[in-house]
Amino acid sequence: MRAGVAALVAAAATLLAPAAPAAAQSSAATAAAQSSAAVTAACTTDPAKPKRQLRAMWISSVANIDWPSAPGLSVSAQQSEFRAWLDLAVQKRMNAVVVQVRPTADAFWPSPYEPWSQWLTGTQGKDPGYDPLAFMVSEAHARNLEFHAWFNPYRIANHDDPTKLVSTHPARENPSWRFAYGGKLYYNPGIPAVRAFIEDAIMDAVTRYDLDGVHLDDYFYPYPVSGQTIPDAATYSTYGGGYAGIADWRRDNVNKLVREMDQRIHAAKSWVTFGISPFGIWRNSSTDPLGSATSGLQSYDAIYADSRQWVKRGWVDYLAPQIYWHIGNTAADYKVLTAWWSDVVRGTGVQLVIGQAAYRAGASGQDAAWQDPAELSDHLTYNRTRPEVLGDVYFSAKDVKADRIGSFTQVVSTHYTRPALLPARGTAAAPAAPTISAATRGSGGVALTWQGSGTAYAVYRVDGSPSTADPCAFADARNLLTTTRKTTFTDATASATAGYTYYVTALDRTHQESDPSAGKAVAGSGTAFSVTVDNADAGFTASSSWGTSTYSSQLHGTDYRFADPVSASDPAWFRAAIPSAGSYKVEIWYPSNAGYNSATPYVVATSTGNQTVTVDQRTGGGVWRVLGTYPLNAGTYNVVGVSRWTSTTGYVIADAVRITKV
């Protein structure tokens, strides 16, 4: 759907100041959210483990881009494929999917307004033998994924022959409602009856199904086709009185659809979120001083989408602008546009998530920047500097799955190491805290059961058995194990030897979170081992090339060590006495700074040989970060090293490590 959009934009290593520890993600101005933000502000949080963040992918049905993979599959094949997409989302620690259910003025549910989609069976109007929308919503919710139903507002067909439409298609029964342009058929946005019909068709899905969101994409008036004019002059003559020109009239037609959809959705179901993924550029600053410092296609002028006004008027709950350009693009720089949209939403109550071009990463023919596995990950790293950015949506599912050049693996390993709650919406009161009724250790882990009144629940685990809950334990996602719509969960990652305390919170439909339950402690079966080695301890060794600094307030202990990268290892080593052979969790602590190294090599001396993990020390400092779990031999030896051998620039840092038997 979006692969051709970038062509509409003409082709056209400054160090950041050290960042303070990240504050809580922006959310609705409720008392509970304000309280949570105050707690988080008083805690040192890990920006790599945000507590709240929307993580989603678009699942496209038009032209069978993602699902179904082909028209005419059996019911069982279609359902198996869709379950696999949801399982992929869970595997990548996403918490929502945006699924196209009305791609070409047709339906993925038994709509009384529009025919069954041809992308299901190969024949428009043919019953697929089940209700796909009911099935998809149920399967998504079983995995505690939000289901956002994605509707294309005006497109009728990717061809311009109305006789190819099923005979009962509303566009055939009402030929005055449509026009052909650029080889495609569209509903005419300027006809009031068309607008009412589109809204009614969408609202049928809203009222009949348990949707979490309604999503419109960027196709409003058609994208410009050279040498062609949109054939709506007669419609403008009929309905355009009082407008300065046809462009203002067209924009207002789209505005009316957006405003009325917002009103109708929330009148029917207040908890359903309404969002749009507009083209990434509203207007260029060379045209309008309110615009962005870009030089690409202007959606305000080209497709009559006044996306900035939708935010300022509060007609949407969120926007997901499609910022499908790389960092440093001369016509449309990712950083420039993300900063511009952040400024637009600030103070409005409209949430901002970013549409990310997973389809470009590692793809043939894309700019060189997209051949860098870190490009997508660097987008999310930049997002951390913009607290208005509450998450990301990836186009599209097949590109997330393809993971060309390992780009999405890097996104997950750098940014999605823990689950995340969705950003809170609205002003509802948080539900009551649940009660844990049992926490039982068994061969499969620790089994929890609880009672509560939430739509969903979040499960947290902290080490040991504290007498009272530390509010900072819930300030980010470092202790968050899972979210679920069930009232049971088995922690299969629990060590048999370690003692833990579990907490559960309740979440409502708009993700307001309750206070945590009373903690439920579970004793370990043996004596746990954990050792911390600081750079000032006797177990630390480094050559004279390593300097000592107290510059960063994020340091562990009294100081930390730093060195320039070179084409030689020269590691700083952390030595420890490992009591017995087994599996050990290795954690690292370092102060972060935008000028530090983006790929610092950490070397772990495992029982099967040295393993190297690179860490971006530009961000995520001042907290313990899990490097991984490794098999270690018994004995006293250099367990963890920080190498200088990296081709990237910026100091490599060695501060502290923690080694814990699991």
Quaternary state of this entry equals: single chain
Approximate shape: globular
Number of helices: 14
Average pLDDT metric: 92
Structural class: alpha/beta
Strand content: 15-25%
Q: Count every beta strand, where a strand is a DSSP E run of 2 or more residues.
A: 30
The helix content is: 10-25%
Low-confidence region ranges: 1-40
Description:
The chain contains 14 helices and 30 strands. Among the domains are: 134 residues, no CATH class; 88 residues, Immunoglobulin-like, CATH 2.60.40; 132 residues, Galactose-binding domain-like (Jelly Rolls). The chain is 21% helix and 25% strand. A hairpin with a 2-residue loop joins β12 and β13. α2 runs parallel beside α4, α6 packs parallel to α8 and α12 packs parallel to α14. The longest helix has 23 residues. The protein is globular and about 85 Å long. InterPro entries: CBD-like_Golvesin-Xly (IPR033803), Divisome_Glycosyl_Hydrolase (IPR052177), GH (IPR017853), GHL10 (IPR003790), Ig-like_fold (IPR013783). GO terms for molecular function: hydrolase activity.
List the helices and strands and how they pair.
Elements: H1 31-41, E1 54-59, H2 75-91, E2 96-102, H3 118-121, H4 132-142, E3 146-151, E4 155-157, H5 170-173, E5 178-181, E6 184-187, H6 192-208, E7 213-216, H7 233-239, H8 246-268, E8 273-276, H9 299-302, H10 307-312, E9 318-319, H11 334-345, E10 351-356, H12 375-383, E11 389-394, H13 397-402, H14 407-415, E12 435-442, E13 445-451, E14 456-463, E15 480-484, E16 488-491, E17 500-507, E18 520-522, E19 530-534, E20 540-541, E21 547-549, E22 560-563, E23 572-578, E24 582-589, E25 600-606, E26 609-615, E27 625-632, E28 635-642, E29 652-654, E30 656-661
Parallel strand pairs: 1-2, 1-11, 2-3, 3-7, 7-8, 8-9, 9-10, 10-11
Antiparallel strand pairs: 4-6, 5-6, 12-13, 13-16, 14-15, 14-17, 17-18, 19-30, 20-23, 21-22, 22-29, 23-28, 24-27, 24-30, 25-26, 25-28
